[in-house]
Amino acid sequence: MASFLQSFVDPKKNWLAALHMKSLSARLRKYGLRYDDLYDPYYDLDIKEALNRLPKELVDARHQRLKRAMDLSMKHQYLSEDLQAMQTPFRSYLQDMLALVKRERAEREALGALPLYQRTFP
After folding, report:
1. d(CA 63, CA 66)
2. What's the domain count of the chain?
3. How far, in Å, CA of 86 to CA of 59, rounded?
4. 8 A C-beta contact, residue 71 and residue 31
5. What superkingdom does the record give (predicted)?
6. Which residues form the domain of 85?
7. What would the pLDDT profile of 81-100 be if each residue is shown by its tens digit?
8. Each residue of 59-69: pLDDT tens digit?
9. CA torsion, points 28, 94, 58, 44, in degrees to nearest 10?
10. How many Å apart are CA 116 and CA 104, to the nearest integer?
11. Burial class for 32, CB neighbours closer than 10 Å (0-12, 13-18, 19+)
């Protein structure tokens, strides 16, 4: 069953997934974003921890892309065509670190240890 689901969402095997990936890529290029920029650190603490572990240059570049995208959105504008052509929306910078954080959390839970970070409300 898992291989069926993998083939269903794989853009190389399913033309609908490829079409979705192409339209998402076009929308991200308009604002100069990467797919990993869409992850919200307030939604998932694993993402917050992964962002904390990344080098400062990558996090600063992420914040600059998000600020530029918000500015363009508020102005109802897009990046120029030549800048859109230079964008790489599916170049990942967060996935490897996020996978490592999730593996560490799962290992801690399997060993019965307390989590390193917990959500607290004031």
Report:
1. 5
2. 1
3. 20
4. no
5. Eukaryota
6. 35-103
7. 999 999 999 999 999 999 99
8. 999 999 999 99
9. 90
10. 10
11. buried
